[in-house]
Amino acid sequence: MSNIDLLPALLIVAPILAATLPIALGLRYERTGWSVAAITSTGLFAAALALASVVYTSGEVIHTLGGYPRTYGIQLVADEFSTLIALLITSVAVGVLAYTRRGGPRGNTFYTAYLLLVGGLLGISLTGDVFNLFVFLEITSLATYALVASGDGPESAVAALKYLILGTVAASMYLIGVAFVFMATGTLNMVELSIAIPAAERPVLIQTGFAFIVVGFAVKVAQWPLHTWQPSAYQQAPDGVTPLIAALVSTASAYAFGRLIVTVFEVDYLAAMPNAAAIVLTIGCVSVLAGTVLAVIQTEVKRMLAYSSVSQFGLVIAAYGVVIAGNSETALTGAVIHLVGHGLLKTGLFLGAALVAASYGARTVDEYAGLATDRPIMAGLMAILLFSLVGIPPSVGFVGKWYIALGAVESQLWPVAAVIFLSTMLTLAYAARLLEKMYFTPATVVERPHARGPVATDGGDADRDDASTLDSEVETDDGSAAAALRGADARNPVSVGMIAIVVVVALGAVALGFAGGAIAELLEPFLTEVIN
Amino acid sequence: MIELLASRYTYVLMFVLLGIGLYMVIASQNLVKKLIGVSLFQTSIFLFFVSMAYVEGGSAPIVPPESDPGELLVASPLPQVIVLTAIVVGIALTAVGLALVIRIYSEYGTLREDTLREVRADE
């Protein structure tokens, strides 16, 4: 076993072990959480880069835990698809962590939940075993519930409980699916399953299993009408947490679903399964339309972006449907690029929304009036990211949609192409509403009831340090009390670094748009392996 | 039908429990009862795994050192290991859920979902 084989295991174990440190060290020393989290996530990013360089040059890296054979042992697999997701997870984690240094939330418990979340997400992307996928889904979910509940005010606890109940039922549905598939085949390893499933004696068990798995992931990925947990969870989570969970949690679930479709059940088998393609396609297309329509009617910016996630993930699921129905390599490329691109865009947009809320005090679409004259850089960044979300070239949002639409057309699935076109128009509708407010509506003080309210509290200032001690003790209640302590100094809490992070994300979104072809090339070995 | 009940009664029982659990999650207005429903739902899946692993006349999957392992008839150990892990996950989830319920109760003074909706609408 060479050293590179250890990297997949380290990527999962290191953050989970490090998650214990902020709390343990916090007993003795104050404010160690950020350093622990920063060192760990930078290390993870470096490790993911090293892993990627190996995977993209010489093929997949497999770590067999404990040396047990894969029929009953556990494997961690890093191939072209999973490494791309691992890179997205670690880079977004580093970016968001840098933002929270000044932007909040803080406190040792926050960093513990943060590291646990990163560990769970990396586990989802690297595991090669369907049951461990369930365990990592639940680790991720547990950390997410805790992070959502740490928002200001009691509303976040209600949102987190709603998320917990729906999320647990969803993960349990997935577990039933695994149980049925296990019953039919007797193995849990993804590669073994792909061999055993076509040979299974009772295909009805496999079909039932797939049905449960589809329902489970439809909740986890927030597909209409099972998306109801998602807007309130995103809205009530602290501003520094929303980018992380919006960009990564559902993305990792969508990745896992795609992995199950292409590696475990395999496209050919699903194409022969009655109605499988039609069901997945319908879920995706309906979510695309319902999500955009719901986004258009929202007044809160964070809520609007949350509904936009419903539609963007609908696009990914629809692409999976195209992959099943049409055996389309192009649509799979599109789904992968869109997953990564959307993750990056949502990080940028939610970070931007957090910046605007912190400095301009604006939370609803109407309150964004006059942002361009008052805060030109922020407005410009939001505009770039919104245009990318709509899919205006050259941006990553365009490349993903282009490949998916191309795949749909190649497979003669014209309704899907029409849905993608229609959703682009509707995305433009809600993006344009925000752009119009930012650039063409003059600001009036009366219109911004959120300004200087409790929303502008999480600022970093010189006297922040005293307050952060307090935060770590009453972390869940980090609200008006701490703000009162900090007083007027919290008025302009946005540092250059926080803006710089959003600039990097926005530039990344545009740069990835040019790199679309390169990503497709990197994925080539994986695509030819799973699609014949 | 009778034959199904006689030969596959554990699976039938498991799906009845599953239904009860899901019904509690959806229909009960009490947040604690909802969480009990979630637990029941999960537990029924664990029972499904365990009954799946049962082998007619098989013993526990502990291999004694003296006998020839090839001739032993044992229950499948893999689902049992899986269930152990899943139970731990389930406990963690229930704990987090109950902690959130405590927070909600201390803030709003109610555990009922309909009252909670009214209180939140008033604010």
Question: What does this molecule look like?
Answer:
The complex is a heterodimer of chains A (532) and B (123). Chain A contains 23 helices and two strands. Chain A has helices at residues 6-18, 20-26, 33-58, 80-103, 108-126, 130-149, 155-185, 190-196, 203-220, 229-236, 242-265, 267-272, 276-296, 301-326, 329-359, 371-374, 376-390, 396-410, 414-440, 464-473, 480-486, 496-514, 516-530; strands at residues 61-64, 75-78. In chain A, strands 1-2 form a two-stranded antiparallel ribbon. Chain A is globular. By secondary structure, chain B is an all-alpha fold. Chain B is 73% helix and 0% strand. Chain B has helices at residues 2-7, 9-27, 31-53, 77-108, 113-122. Classes of the chains: A mainly alpha (532), B mainly alpha (123). Chains A and B meet through helix 6 and helix 7 of A and helix 2, helix 3 and helix 4 of B. Chain A: Residues 128-427 form the NADH:quinone oxidoreductase/Mrp antiporter transmembrane domain.
- The helix/strand series of chain B, from N terminus to C terminus, equals HHHHH
What share of residues are in beta strands of chain A? under 5%
Quote the beta fraction of chain B.
Answer: under 5%
SSE pattern of chain A, N- to C-terminal:
HHHEEHHHHHHHHHHHHHHHHHHHH
How can the largest sheet of chain A be summarized? Answer: 2 strands, antiparallel
Distance between the termini of chain A: 31 Å
Q: Which whole number gives the mean pLDDT of chain B?
A: 84
Distance between the termini of chain B: 54 Å
Protein name (chain B): Cation:proton antiporter
Membrane topology (chain B): Multi-pass membrane protein
Main location (chain B): membrane
Organism (chain B): Natronorubrum aibiense
Describe the structure concisely for a colleague.
The complex is a heterodimer of chains A (about 525) and B (about 120). With about 525 residues, chain A is mainly α.
SSE blueprint and pairings:
The complex is a heterodimer of chains A (532) and B (123).
Chain A: H1 6-18, H2 20-26, H3 33-58, E1 61-64, E2 75-78, H4 80-103, H5 108-126, H6 130-149, H7 155-185, H8 190-196, H9 203-220, H10 229-236, H11 242-265, H12 267-272, H13 276-296, H14 301-326, H15 329-359, H16 371-374, H17 376-390, H18 396-410, H19 414-440, H20 464-473, H21 480-486, H22 496-514, H23 516-530
Antiparallel strand pairs in A: 1-2
Helix pairs in contact in A: 1-3, 1-5, 2-3, 2-5, 3-4, 3-5, 4-5, 4-11, 4-15, 5-6, 6-7, 6-11, 7-9, 7-10, 8-11, 9-11, 10-14, 11-14, 11-15, 13-14, 13-19, 14-15, 14-18, 14-19, 15-17, 15-18, 15-22, 15-23, 17-19, 17-22, 18-19, 18-22
Chain B: H1 2-7, H2 9-27, H3 31-53, H4 77-108, H5 113-122
Helix pairs in contact in B: 2-3, 3-4
